[in-house]
Structures are given as structure tokens and as C-alpha cells.
Write a structure and sequence with these properties.
This protein has 401 residues and is α/β, with parallel strands linked by helices. The protein has two domains: 138 residues, 3-Layer(aba) Sandwich (Rossmann fold), CATH 3.40.50; 202 residues, Dihydrodipicolinate Reductase, domain 2 (2-Layer Sandwich). 36% of the residues lie in helices and 28% in strands. The protein has 14 helices and 18 strands. The strands form three sheets. Strands 7, 8, 9, 10, 11, 12, 15, 16 and 18 form a nine-stranded mixed β-sheet that branches. The structure holds NADP nicotinamide-adenine-dinucleotide phosphate.
Length: 401
Amino acid sequence: MSKVLIIGAGGVGRVVTYKCAQHPEVFSEIMLASRTVSKCEDIVRDVARDTGHQHLSTAAVDAENVPELVALIRSFGPKLLIHVALPYQDLTIMDACLETGVHYLDTANYEPKDEAKFEYSWQWAYQDRFKEAGLLAVLGCGFDPGVTSIFTARAAKHHFDEIHYLDIVDCNGGDHGKAFATNFNPEINIREITQKGRFYENGQWIETEPHEISKMLSYPNIGERNSYLIYHEELESLVKNYPTIKRARFWMTFGEEYLTHLRVIQNIGMASIEPINYQGKEIVPLQFLKAVLPDPGDLGDNYVGETSIGCRIRGMKDGKEKTYYIWNNCSHQAAFEETGTQGVSYTTGVPAMLGAMMVLTGEWSGKGVFNVEEFNPDPFLDQLGENGLVWHEKENIDLEL
Ligand SMILES: NC(=O)c1ccc[n+]([C@@H]2O[C@H](COP(=O)([O-])OP(=O)(O)OC[C@H]3O[C@@H](n4cnc5c(N)ncnc54)[C@H](OP(=O)(O)O)[C@@H]3O)[C@@H](O)[C@H]2O)c1
């Protein structure tokens, strides 16, 4: 029985709050805090109605303000903080956790606001401070990063002596009926997918132009989709933690219509993160664009189809080469019926809750900063299906890659 503080009342925060409230035996008291408290109140009202959890509360907090965070944490007294606001706040929240003696868990690595740069260096630099404080920081416990890293850990533990080739494949086969929308925070999402592609081969990182490399891949229950090589943050920790990997890549599907919109957005300068002066006020074009795009949390209504995310792996077992595919498909409609939001928020929120459960029940422990593949994957994967994300695996099949 533990108190948990969730920060961030977006689509992912909604799912995390629902999922924690479904386990009152672990999460006995839950507080949801965010910049706009009315968003927390809306979520908590729905969660209380649907789950009957008796100890839910809300608060307003600016997660970029350490003293404000420290005061809130001290007044509530959680054992663990689940950070599902934005990656810009990772470091201030980690600072506040250190100051108050609280374990930390997030779903996305730190990004400075003025540079779209995805790397773990800033958070790995907290290793000694978390260790000395006897605290645990769990990094990247969403779906990707998160479940994809835990799928890789399962492959390494149960299926391979050496992993040689890792391809993470992420398909959204859903249709929300809008001309253009992103499935999670538009600012973070557009920063991620408009950057240069990058993959790891023979000890080196190889850079590509954005969306330069693509391949038609088939996804279970969805069919063939054009998949583009992009950089994704879990590649960095996975090649470090599994040094036998010779090549690691990440593929994401995009429709032609989506890419056309994206090209126009970039060509007219709306994806820029450089501030401009507009009528005497400084604005960031990408932040303005976020304000006019659909809120990802509102996409659930009429969203049909499924996501399919998994790992395709080639390596050695008992002296022979083998292939292995492990994946989950998630229905947008089922996610919406359960939590009032779409599948991308759902596939991120469920693992965040489960990671928190692993820490609070002692299944995952340690002192310092950890990426999720460093923990035992078994207790997590044992519970993933019954918490809404059923997974499947196949051996010795054509991986198409
Ligand atoms: N690993 C994965 O698989 C994965 C997948 C998708 C998303 N993610 C991550 O999940 C996180 C949440 O995504 P989302 O789609 O839920 O985003 P979202 O809908 O934009 O929600 C973010 C929430 O954070 C709040 N917030 C922003 N700045 C804040 C601040 N300074 N202090 C307090 N609260 C603040 C926002 O408040 P306002 O409402 O007041 O703006 C908003 O409610 C992001 O970090 C994203 O990168 C991870």
C-alpha cells in the first residue's frame, strides 16, 4: 500500500491514473498534479466514477519549478513519482525527488527546449546522486521506450545467447478521421520525427536524412505499411546494455497524407523551435502549431484500428542462428472505452503504471538510475496482458529485415 504522485494531466496521465486506480492494493493513495488543475479534476472525476477508488486527489504544480515541486511532494508524501508531463521537466523533477527522498519513473528522456536532442547523458549523469540517496530512478517506462526494451530483455534472457540484429517496429494502423493530428504531444512528436534518422551498425552511429530509408513491412492484423527508419531513444541504452548487438534500428509507419502535411509544416517554418517576434511578442512556431492542432487526448472518439509495436531480432542460440518476433497490438476503440483516450496514450500509460507497481512491490529494485531493460522482464511481462496489453511471440520466421 503506497502513495503515488502522478505529474502531467495529458492523454498519458489519464491512462496512468485509471490504471493505478484499478490497483488500490498497491496504489492506496493517488495524487494527479499538473500545470492546469482543471484537467486533473476532469480526469480524477472520471476515474473515481469508473473505478471507485476512494483516495484520489489533485493539485496544481509547475514541474519546472523545483521549490514548488518539493513543497507539493512534502505535503503529500508519496513513495514514488510517475512523471508523464513533458521531457523538458525530467531534470527538475529528478532534482525534487532527490531533495525529498522519493523514487522516480518517466517515459521519455530529457530534452532541452532549445535543441531537439534525444540522449540519456543528462539523466545518466544523476547516477551517483540517486545511488548515494538510496533512491531508484526508472527511465523510459512507456511502450517505446519501455515495453520494447523489456521485450529485448526477454529475448536476451530466454531466447538468445547473443542478440546480433535488433529492429524495433512501430505501426499505428489506426484512423482518427482528422486531416492531420499527432498521437501524443504535438511539439514533442514533431521534434522527434522531423530530426535526422540514425541507426547503430558495427559500433558506430550512422546518420540519414529524415525519412530517407523506408521499407514495406507487414504487421499482424494490420497488413503492409511503409515503415521509415527514424532515431529513437531506446537504441542508445539497448546497444550499451547488449554489447553483442551489431545493428540496431527503429522503424515507424507514416501514411503519405501525414508525410505531405509534415513536409508543408516544415517548409513553411512551422516546425521551427527558434523563437520569432510576432506583434511584439516572442513565440515559438512549433508551440503555436501545437495550440491549433487537435489535442491528442481528444482523438479517441471515432478512432478505429490498432497499433502494433514490437521487436524483430536475429541472433545466436546454442550455436545456431535464429529469428524472433515479439509484439503487442492495441485497439484504439478498446482503449477509449476503458479510459476515454486513444491507443497511443494507452500503450504508454499501462507500462508506466506497471513499472511503478514493480518498484512498489519490490520486483524491481536498486539504487541509482536504470533503463528498464536492466530489470527482470518476467514479472512485468507476466502482468502486461492482464492489464490490457496482450503480447505474442514467434520464433524462426521471416523478419522481412
Ligand atoms: N515512451 C513512450 O512510449 C511514449 C509515448 C507517447 C508519449 N510519451 C511521453 O509521455 C508524456 C506525456 O505525453 P502526452 O501525450 O500525455 O502529452 P500531453 O497530452 O501534452 O500532456 C502533457 C501534460 O503535461 C503538462 N505539463 C506541461 N508542462 C508542465 C509543467 N511545466 N508543469 C506541470 N505540468 C506540465 C501539460 O499541462 P497543460 O495541460 O497545462 O499544458 C499536460 O497536461 C510526454 O513526455 C511524451 O513524450 C512516451
